[in-house]
Amino acid sequence: MKVALIRLLGSDRFDFNSADYNVGLRYLAEIVRNLGAVADIFDPLCADDVDLAAQKLSGAYSMIGFTVHHLNVLETLTLVEAVKRRNAAVYIILGGHHVSATATEILQDCRAVDAVCVGDGEDIMQHLTRLLLAGKPSTNHLPRGVLRPERAWELGLLPVPSPPSSFSTARILTSRGCPYNCSFCTTPAMRGIASDPSYRVRDPDSVIEEIRMLKRLGIREIRVNDDLFFSRSTQSRSRVQEIAKKILVNGFDIQYRAQLRVDSVTENDVEFLKVLRQSGLRSVFLGVESGNNAILDEYNKRTNLQYAVDALSLYHRARISVNAGNILLSPDGTVEDVLESIEGFHKMGLAFLFFRRVTFCAHVFPGTALESRLEQEGRLERKRRYFMRSYTFRDPRLEELARPIEQMMPQFLLKIGGELFRLRDRIVRAYYDDRQTLRRDPMPFLADWNQKSKDFLCCYFSRPNNPATRSRATELFEWYTSYCETLKRGFLRCFI
Ligand code: B12
Ligand code: SF4
User: Fold this and answer.
1) How far does residue 350's CA lie from ligand 2's centre (Å)?
2) pLDDT tens digits for 47-77?
3) Which of 117, 215, 391, 441 could in theory staple to 95 by disulfide, Cβ–Cβ 3.0 to 4.6 A?
4) Are 77 and 95 in contact (CB under 8 A)?
5) In what order do the strands lie in the sheet with 221-224?
6) pLDDT averaged over every residue in the chain
7) Is the pLDDT reported for residue 452 higher than 90?
8) Based on the number of CB atoms within 10 Å of its own CB, is 383 exposed (0-12), middle (13-18) or buried (19 or more)?
């Protein structure tokens, strides 16, 4: 009995994150393997030739599970249909936040899908594998439709998956969920859809055991996949401080990065940040999202620009580098809000991060508070909920401004942007480490990049009624790309 677990490449193939591996599938594979069955992971699977992929899969597996997000939903459903056409007996199940929120529609529209797992998959995967192993030759006896786990797994008891052997960086989870309620985010939405507990944490000792295992595998760099590694609550920080101290006591020589809110640390946390840095925390991804307080309120972010500016300075002092989430164009923002947000990011020294994303616009994910509000207001494109739906901006000027720049962004990222951001990460890391690999101070280059990025965006967004939007975007991208080429040379000259 063989199970395939698949993350299909979709429209994210030009996104430099798509080559990374998926943690959820590895947890599920461990569950299957612990029961004595074979689980093959295809992560990612590129199925440009759908028939060929379907032919290979349909003959080899009794059950195929796909992890689905907004970027690969179309490709997944296409492949599922093709597999089922070849072999109707293969049992096909989908999972992930995206399909959890749209399970009923998917099952209605795509008869080839046997089941959709809503929420955590471990319990369901264990149940299905046991049924398959029970020895009946067909998959007819497996449950179909919407499947919900009967119990939330205690995270510390889950089998710990190892990273793919070709990876030198591992991803771990020390918690699942998040206690906040940002309107665009699917994580709080899952509490209602899948009845997930809001925030589940692992015991520090179990995290330490996982790190010990990773060290034995030769891993030196870890990415913490938690939605929120720690919040501003004392309890949450104590847990992380304990993990950090145990990393130090065990003498693990590792570096790690994690995702945080801008208010996860305050002025009083200088010592705490020191311990985190000593234990190996080198980089954080902050959910800044906007430099405009009205927009932050629209997102129910419960932070403001000042928190973000303060956090930036704290991490800088602690020699921890920062990347930030940014959503420049939101459904309710105006052009003036956008300009203020650009100013805010410029103040943080991070305006160039707007060019790291393929899109400038807020996505409306199914299941989120943002989706229900826009739905009620009749502002969402009439399309199946599992496809990404565009919306009417409250400020019609943004409609016209958003598209050209979004169409040009992938090209920019492929040509120079992706490489430049990787270089920036290396350079900042070297700067905050011992600087021995640097022959000159890279900070003036970063300051200039911040300025030029702001110039680009302000020039573009401050003339919203100019009819030549597309040609202006083309001109600006040409200028910015050539600037980035020069910047790249400057960055390279910083290294010894
Ligand atoms: C860490 C993270 C990242 C990291 C690392 C990704 C990686 N390679 O691991 C980085 C920063 C690179 C990243 C990038 C992006 N991410 Co991200 N990311 C996450 C985050 C916070 C955790 C992922 C994770 O490891 N979860 C833990 C595992 C255990 O959970 P899981 O994958 O959901 O799987 C469980 C269940 O869902 C279920 N399940 C899942 N699949 C299947 C399949 C079967 C068959 C079954 C039975 C069950 C099942 O069982 C699993 C085990 O319990 C999630 C939020 C979240 N909580 O999941 C967002 C999330 C997945 N990301 C999201 C987005 C939008 C992105 C980006 C597009 C952001 C951007 N604008 O660039 C990119 C896309 C990158 C890409 N090409 O895939 C969205 C997706 C929204 C959607 N509806 O599709 C999420 C849900 C965030 C959010 N809350 O809105 N991301
Ligand atoms: S703090 Fe982050 S993970 Fe939590 S709800 Fe907001 S965006 Fe989602």
Assistant:
1) 20
2) 999 999 999 999 999 999 999 999 999 999 9
3) 117
4) no
5) 169-172, 221-224, 255-260, 281-289, 321-326
6) 94
7) yes
8) exposed
Q: Is the pLDDT of residue 386 over 80?
A: yes
Does residue 6 lie within any of the structural domains?
A: yes
Residue pair 140/168 in contact (Cβ under 8 Å)? The answer is no
The SS3 call for residue 439 is: coil
Instruction: Encode pLDDT of 78-110 as tens digits.
Output: 999 999 999 999 999 999 999 999 999 999 999
Whether 197 is covered by a domain: the verdict is no
- pLDDT above 90 covers a percentage of the chain that reads 84
Find the range with the poorest average confidence among 151-165, 374-388, 478-492: 151-165
Query: What CATH number corresponds to the domain at position 107?
Result: 3.40.50.2300
pLDDT of residue 157: 83
Q: Quick check: 287 pLDDT over 70? A: yes
Cα 341 from Cα 362, distance rounded (Å): 14
4 Ramachandran zone, left/alpha/beta (phi>0; psi -120 to 50): beta
The closest-lying atom of ligand 2 relative to the alpha carbon of residue 188 is 5
Q: How far is the CA of 339 from the centre of ligand 1 (A)?
A: 30
Ligand 1 site, residue 186, Cβ cutoff 6 A:
yes
DSSP 181: -
Ligand 1 touching residue 295 (CB < 6 A): no
Dist. CA 449–CA 294, nearest whole Å? 27
Give the whole-angstrom CA distance, residue 161 versus residue 173: 10
CB atoms within 10 A of CB 290: 30
Number of structural domains in the chain = 1
* Residue of 180, 198, 263 to test ligand 2 pocket, by largest number of atoms within 8 Å of CB: 180
Pocket residue to mutate for ligand 2, from 176, 183, 185, most atoms within 8 A of Cβ: 185
Confidence at residue 43, expressed as pLDDT on a 0 to 100 scale: 96
What is the pLDDT confidence band of residue 198, given thresholds at 50, 70 and 90? confident
Residue 154 included in any domain: no
Is the pLDDT higher at 72 or at 195?
72
The angle at the Cα of 308, spanning 305 to 309, to the nearest 5 degrees, equals: 85
pLDDT over 70 percentage in the chain: 98
| Ligand 1 mean position, distance from CA 224 (Å) | 12
CB 120 less than 6 A from any atom of ligand 2: no
Q: Is 73 inside a domain boundary?
A: yes
The model's pTM: 0.96
**What CA dihedral angle connects 247, 251, 253 and 254, to 10 degrees?**
-10
CA-proximal residue: ligand 2, atom 3 (nearest): 227
CB of residue 388 inside a 6 A radius of ligand 2 = no
Half-sphere exposure in the Cβ direction for 379 (13 Å, CA) = 18
Domain assignment of residue 51, given as a range: 2-147
Token pair, residue 161, equals 């998956």
User: Atom 1, ligand 2: which residue's CA is nearest?
Assistant: 180
Residue with tokens 């100013």: 343
